[in-house]
Amino acid sequence: MKRSWVVFATFALLLGASLTLLWGVIGLGPIKGWIPVATFATAILITLVMAALAAGGARRRRGGEGDQSAAPRAIPDFSFPTVLAGIAIAHMALGLELGAWLIMIGAGALAVAVGSVAIELRATRRAAVRAGGEESAT
Amino acid sequence: MTTLDAPPRRSGTLSLLGLFGSTDHKHIGLVTGLTAFAFFLLAGLLALLMRTELAEPGLQILRDDTYNQVFTMHGSTMFYLFAVPLALAVGLYLVPLQIGAAEIVWPRLALLGYWLFLSGGLIMYSGFLTADGAAKAAWTAYDPLSDSVATPEAGMDLWIIGVVLATVATMIWAACVLATLVRRRAPGMTMLRIPVFSWGMVVTCLLVLTAFPALVLAMTLLYIDRHFGGVFTDPGGPLAYQHLFWFYGHPVVYVVFFPFLGAALEAIAVCSRKRFFGYHAMVLSLLGFTALSMSVWGHHMFTTGGVANRYFALTSTALLVPAGIEYFDSLATMFRGRIVVRTSLLFALGFLGLFLIGGLTGILVGSPPLNYHLHDTYFIVAHFHYTVVGGTVFGFFAGIYHWFPKVTGRILGEGLGKINWALLMVGTLLTFIPQFFLGEEGMARRISDYPAYEGWAGLNQLSTVGAFVIFLGVLVLLINVARSLRLGRVAGDDPWGGHTLEWTTSSPPPRHNFEALPPVRSYAPLLDLREERERARAGAVALGADREELRP
């Protein structure tokens, strides 16, 4: 089995069978206990979205990107803006309890962090392009 | 061998700051695992407090209110901050190595997940610093016990925020690991050649991504309900909360089981020096097990009278079928194997034995008539501790002894390891078997005291002694780790004769994991390579013999 979407589709199928059985037991009339059915159906939907994403990814790879699975990607060894983003989100969440001032501080820190990650991404991309250019020149 | 474009770089020594900001999946997995283990130690101390309190009738060291906080934080820590993050941490570390990937997909997101998880844990525990203490509505936080009338304290709000942050972190990690499994497999590594442990991670991530959103929703609604009201206030509200909670709450048991099942099975196959038996049946049974595990949540709610008991009893009992296949496969792997009794194998066997007790008693409580009798008693406590201690802790310890050489470059001491195993085994049996009897006799769970005339003191004392034996066992592990890191035997790349790709690279692995990869033709590429070499060697020897015969 080369295609990973088959795994997701099989899982969705099994969940679907289980949901059908549940629905059969609790009855089809006015939906009794709609929450279990709704949560179950949402889980199936999420699985189907994952199957679609996996199938799309596989198609893109077949369409020219090739299998670069084992090759390392250009990425910095450390990402302190990401750490800042995590701390900022935690501050914002804690601000729900301690007050709007902490949410503001968290939001400010998050904005700085997102900006820094964007700079980091741009620098990484440029470095990768440069490395590619040097490689082709040699 | 497939040679990779970029030469590998050594991870080298990292500063503490570097370790906590690294985008290397191994560092993220390692710090997550270490943090989760620190939370495990904290939860263990809370458990010892509880067991000490229950050793005698009457209140000795805790007040009722403090006891409620202690058991709430013990359960919450074990699930939200230890078992689930640990399961994903092991996946973050090992999955790219097992499938031949240079790194994980979305490493920044994985790093973000770590900081959300750590913050969530600290926020949850910060409840102890508030005037009225930490949350006290159990790890389930049932409404109306957790609403603003019954539990108005800030500790409960902090708990909800902590749970949401830790759960979102888990979902992020699951997405990263699953995307890596889908997109970064080495050439030749098809889905049906993924090692058993990594298959455990596939189904774990599926569960996390499909079931955990229900918990985030439940916690968000609970927070809104506590501050603005009107969510769970109508008569069906508490039942709606329970549906949402258990839609997460049952699958989570399998989230903390499948990765460690994979770890135990890898240890069994390697220690049996034999190919894993029934791989395809195992993969199918894992998928079936996962789907079924999402269909049984209602058995936690039999006594509410608000769920389809027939359906949930049927699905709960059906869990025996995939579980049986997995047990059969693991025993058949050992059958006629050239078994080497290492500590990892002992823990793997302990895992199978203890989880069997948890699983079989699970079938009992999955039957509505018995469930009505045993609901909310110590029988349930014993049952799920056999699944969690047996399934998670023993499986994790099997994994520690199996993969410690890969992570650190040194072998964990076998002598201390066997003492570690014996203490944990005796401690677990001594702690939780008496609780089955206590539960059957009607001792309710989540109580800080019990009347002396019930005659439960003896069994409770046994259980308390057992808890301290477990503590000793964990202490031995810590000593063993500290000792082996300094004095342990140097491991080399493959000290056990491993079957999977992580054993081809150095110990610890370099930044981008591999210098070269062997061809992948099955789920045990290294074993294939070894067998191929043996066949070639045997062929050469036979050829040599033929030449001898032909010589005049």
SSE string of chain A, helices as H and strands as E: HHHH
Q: Quickly give the structural class of chain A.
A: mainly alpha
- Rg result of chain B: 24 Å
What assembly state would you assign to the polypeptide chains in this entry? heterodimer
Chains forming the largest contact: A-B, 54 and 76 residues
CATH fold node name of the largest domain in chain B: Cytochrome C Oxidase, Chain A
* Alpha carbon gap, first and last residue of chain A: 39 Å
Radius of gyration of chain A: 23 Å
- Largest sheet composition of chain A: none
The overall average pLDDT of chain A, rounded, is 82
Number of strands of chain B: 2
The helix content of chain A, as a percent range, equals: over 70%
- CATH superfamily name of the largest domain in chain B? Cytochrome c oxidase-like, subunit I domain
The number of helical runs of chain B is 18
Q: By helix and strand content of chain B, what is the structural category?
A: mainly alpha
* SSE succession of chain B: EHHHHHHHHHHHHHHHHHEH
Summarize the amount of helix of chain B as a percent range.
55-70%
Shape of chain A: flat
Number of helices of chain A: 4
Mean pLDDT of chain B: 92
